[in-house]
Amino acid sequence: MPVWLEAGFWGLVAGGALVVGAVVAWFVKVSEDVVAAVLAFGAGVLISTLAFDLVDEAETTGGLGPTVLGLLAGATAYVAANAWLGRRGARRRKNMGARQMSEEKQAGSGTAIAVGALLDGVPESVVLGMTLLGGGGVGVPVLAAIFISNLPEGLSSAAGMKANGRSARYVFGVWGGIAVASGLAGMLGALALDGAAPETVAVITAVAAGAILTMVADTMIPEAFEKERLLTGLITTVGFIAAFAISRG
Questions:
Q1: What is the residue-averaged pLDDT of the chain?
Q2: What is the rounded distance in angstroms from the CA atom of residue 227 to the CA atom of residue 106?
Q3: What is the pLDDT of residues 209-229, one digit of tens each?
């Protein structure tokens, strides 16, 4: 199978976790405490994967300077895009309750939420596709981290959409579309960077890592802490340990 096609497949698999979460949220009432705990666990998984796989690999390949610049560029781009979307009603897109903006409260918030979810997912899928470029197959720790973090995101956000009266067609259309877009992002990342200089791959990896880390700090951890204040730190640490164990396994 061509690398670009394999990258698209794994991007679709990782993005499919969003659909699984949305299905669970639509048909099963899951407590906000449980969702908060899974968000915290997913945040820990992503932080570990960023530290021990993505950023470490970027620095080893491209050097400290390009890695730092890439991280800052990715974080800055995410903050700017997230701020723009927040003004249009997408700031609480991972919230499963009424605090997520409804279309009645702010016109266009549904589109902004969908675009915001896409903003969260694309950097992850690009990185996942890039793990295949070395010829050693998909990066299992990265795949596991993205899948685990996508599941509560789809669950919590879809529950919030349902609570605000959005239709099943809208909810599953959004998450199904983002799963497909995740596959395309993984495929395009592999196509665009196949044969690129290692330094270029390292910088792009760092940019994506900066965006992902900022997403964790700006959206996942705050939403988790809001509902599970006492155990958020502990659960995040457990997620960190789990991902570290996978990467060293």
A1: 82
A2: 25
A3: 999 899 888 878 887 887 767
d(CA 194, CA 205): 13
Residue with tokens 């903050």: 79
Closest CA to 157 of 55, 35, 249, 62: 35
Per-residue pLDDT of 147-179, as tens digits, reads 888 887 788 778 777 877 888 888 898 889 989
Annotate 151-172 with b (16+ C-beta within 10 A) or e (fewer): bbbbbbbbbbbbbbebeeebbb
* Secondary structure, 3-state, 159-207: HHHHHCCCCHHHHHHHHHHHHHHHHHHHHHHHHHHCCCCHHHHHHHHHH
Entry field: residues in the chain: 249
* Band of residue 67 on the pLDDT scale cut at 50, 70, 90: very high
| Dist. CA 143–CA 129, nearest whole Å | 10
Q: Is pLDDT of 107 > 50?
A: no
pTM exceeds 0.70, yes or no:
yes
Give the integer Cα–Cα distance in Å for 27 and 190.
Answer: 36
DSSP 8-state secondary structure symbol assigned to residue 106: S
Alpha-carbon span 163 to 124, nearest angstrom: 28
Tokens 């997408």, residue located:
90
Type of residue at 7 = A
Higher pLDDT, 35 or 40: 40
> To which residue do tokens 């067609």 refer?
169
Supply φ then ψ for residue 25, to 5 degrees.
-65, -35
- The answer to whether 145 and 12 are in contact (CB under 8 A) is no
